[in-house]
Amino acid sequence: MSTPVRVRFAPSPTGHLHVGGARTALFNWLFARHYRGVFVLRIEDTDLERSQEAYTKAILDGLRWLGLDWDEGPDVGGPHGPYFQSQREDRYRAAIERLLHEGKLYHCFCTAETLEAMRKDQAERKVDIKYDGRCRALDRAEVERRIAAGETFVLRLRRPEREWVEWDDITKGRLSFTSDQLDDLVVVKSDGMPTYNFAVVVDDIDMRITHVIRGEDHISNTPKQILLYRALGAPLPWFAHIPMILGKDRARLSKRHGATSVVEYEKMGYDPEAFRNYLALLGWAPTDHTREILSRDELFAEFTLDRVSSHGAIFDLDKLTWMNAEYIKRFSPATLLAKLRPWLAQIPGFPGGLDEPALVKLAGLYRERLKTYNEILTMADWFFTAPTTYDAKGLEKAAKIGGARGLLNRLLERLRAAPEFAEGPLEALVRSFAEAEGRKFGDVVHLCRLGLSGRTATPGLFEVMAVLGRDRCLARLERFAAVCPT
Ligand code: GLU
């Protein structure tokens, strides 16, 4: 490719970063990185009523959480700024002046009532519903008189007649419309603000965008935008309309399918890399389509638009969760601890006197067990505060063992004298103790586990004991011995 690739993600800050938006941003970013091009972030905040600064921040935070970085845009600037549409009015004004001067726009004074009547009449006559062009022929004097009289107006694009409006969409193939199917597009609204389609085109031209990669819900905007490119005398970029993300029922992903904003997945304890990997596979696959776990650099190397599917992609939470667990399994205990730390910090009592090596070991114990980070909150809380209650079924089982309290007290004596509080020696100690007592190893393990955690299921007992260390283990078992069935 001779011209450097320049792509953009252009969110409207009217809500949080949505899964669909995140996937669009991701595809643009991967495409830019694959071709060593430029990824531009542009905030489309012309809808002043619905746009909120807090949402701009939320979107940027969401993109950052996913590990996406932009070469031009908010915070980083760049040669084609400003990157907020609300700050680009002079650019739109200049383009409007030019088009007016060239006679490509006209003033339309039709009121909402007139347009409504027109629509009704067209509906009754069963003809296409569109602006009938009645203000096209107003002469200059009349236009000036009506403006002076304070009539409100919009500016419309003089739509060419009997022209094909076509493009070769990278993912959808050739798409064809005729200009007669289209309306005389409103370019400037009655409040003087440029319309969405107009601002997008002016910005994409200004920012030298070479490829417009966006959701297929924008396909209907594209012929309108192409007419604007033509009017402005600018070459068309490539367009790639990517398939919608669907729920399992094949309806467009919405709240009723579950969480739709990225931040909710962050809060649910998904790993950003895993989430990004999963998003990348929504409507795209690498050359070897059986490969599912792909690092960032592998995605950069592999991502091309010819591998984007033209059909909808199904968002499958179970698959995402599976992928998240796969990522967790691959982290070293130290890396996992770093990822878990914000979650662990929410647990009352954390760190409960556990030092760094113990915490790393603890993280290692959950590598194979966690599917999402938030699970650590309920899986490992007992490491940091000694249990005060014990699982009822566990107590029943302890009662059946018979003489549990005495057994535990004799084990405590052995543990106090244990030369080394590490997994191997501890296991050997408990085994020989059980044997000497003529008890089942499993029964002794059960008592210890219940006493240490209050639970009947934990990671391996001896690993747990090594994490807790001698003092905590002895103290917890002594407390349990006091209430344990006799
Ligand atoms: N601002 C538009 C949106 O949030 C995107 C415009 C575009 O990609 O052309 O849907």
From TrEMBL:
GO terms for biological process: glutamyl-tRNA aminoacylation. The keyword Phosphoprotein does not apply. GO terms for cellular component: cytosol. A motif ('HIGH' region) lies at residues 11-21. CDD domains: GluRS_core. Monomer. This is Glutamate--tRNA ligase. It comes from Candidatus Ozemobacter sibiricus.
